[in-house]
Amino acid sequence: MKLRTILLLSFLGWKSLVVFGNNEIKSGEIWKDDTGVHINAHGGGVLFHNGRYYWFGEYKSEDTSAALRGVTCYVSDDLVNWTNQGIALAVTDEQGSDIERGCTIERPKVVYNSKTQKFVMWFHLELKGRGYAAARAAVAISDRVEGPYTYLHSGRVNAGQLPANMNREERERMDKLQPDAYKEWWTPTWTQAVKDGLFVKRDLEDGQMARDMTVFVDDDKHAYHIYSSEDNLTLHIAELTDDYMAHTGKYVRLMPAGHNEAPAIFKKDGTYWMITSGCTGWDPNEARMFSAKSIWGPWMQHTNPCRGDNHRLTFGGQSTYILKVEGKPNAFIFMADIWRPKHPIDARYIWLPIDFEKDVPVITWREAWNPATYWK
Ligand code: GAL
Fold it and tell me: Is the shortest distance between the CB of 285 and ligand 1 below 6 Å?
């Protein structure tokens, strides 16, 4: 805070912060950290630990979304004022390293494992110079929440494993699919083949693709990795091992050929709610919402939860995470990114409270709101 502001506040009283709006979330605006710089934590997620919120995200540069620094971390007590903790996971200059500077690191999410007492970071990794071809899930760990994180490994997911929600008949149908027979994409027969597992079969040996992702820790401490697989056409929900550092091999497919990205999930009163986007790259599209009584499904689709200005384009953003506000029952914040592909560092954030209409989540556009007073 500048000296002038401090003097003004001591004159007017600290309550005047309310008037100046320092305790409000203003989606789409510049969000300055403690050093006065716009927060650089895109495609992020938030971990609540020891009474504080830790926000992890992609560091973006002036003219590239490639990872030139790594994953950033910010800490806050009130979800409005954020202190920059620096780089939690740094890229390296070692040539050929998976996380060589210039690779692509997207949508990092950190969870805490109480058994191992390690912080585990998962992210979507693309190798330097290879566009989006690698489609890998990557993991890094640390003993301290803010890092530094040590990179462990990356790869495709669940090699050799068939989805748990495919019955015998469906497996036989998939077995019969001939990849060469579907040279032309986006035809009705191709869509049906994707639904039937065309790409699951293609990637069975080397592992399934994993791009846009989140990680969810359930009440029973089981963790799940949820990611866009099968050329972004189908979401997979995959169980993580007890230490959260690998996959167990159990996974289900969600909305085959439904083209969902940017998964964000929360649980309320025993129901899992997932909000996703369609696939239009950096451009916004209409949010989708699903619910299930078990993480393994069946999942049911609902209508777009967004209301108000620009609700058909998710207010100009794309989902990234749903944050549970601690100490308040049923208080959740929908987090999204407004991408700026020509000037990536200038990408903005949308954080809006989730309301419930007859128990169904609704997200209404608000210019400004105060997370300290929003929930009674
Ligand atoms: C989006 C995706 C982002 C990023 C981008 C690249 O659809 O959600 O995380 O991968 O495409 O174009």
Answer: no
Is 262 near ligand 1, meaning CB less than 6 Å away?
yes
Residue 376 has a pLDDT of 81
How many angstroms is it from 283 CA to the middle of ligand 1?
9
Write down the residue that tokens 């989140």 correspond to: 214
Query: How many CB atoms within 10 Å of residue 7?
Result: 10
Q: Is the CB of 58 under 6 A from ligand 1?
A: no
Listed residue (314, 316, 223, 311) closest to 267, CA to CA: 223
Question: Which tokens is 372 given?
Answer: 């300290």
Task: Determine the 3-state secondary structure of 201 from DSSP.
Answer: helix
Tens digits of residue pLDDT in 30-54: 999 999 999 999 999 999 999 999 9
Interval between CA 314 and ligand 1 midpoint (Å): 15
Q: Cα separations (Å) of 22 from 7, 15, 37, 196, 274?
A: 16, 10, 15, 52, 31
Does the Cβ of 57 fall within 6 Å of ligand 1? no
Judge contact between 151 and 226, C-beta under 8 A: no
pLDDT, residue 10, reads 53
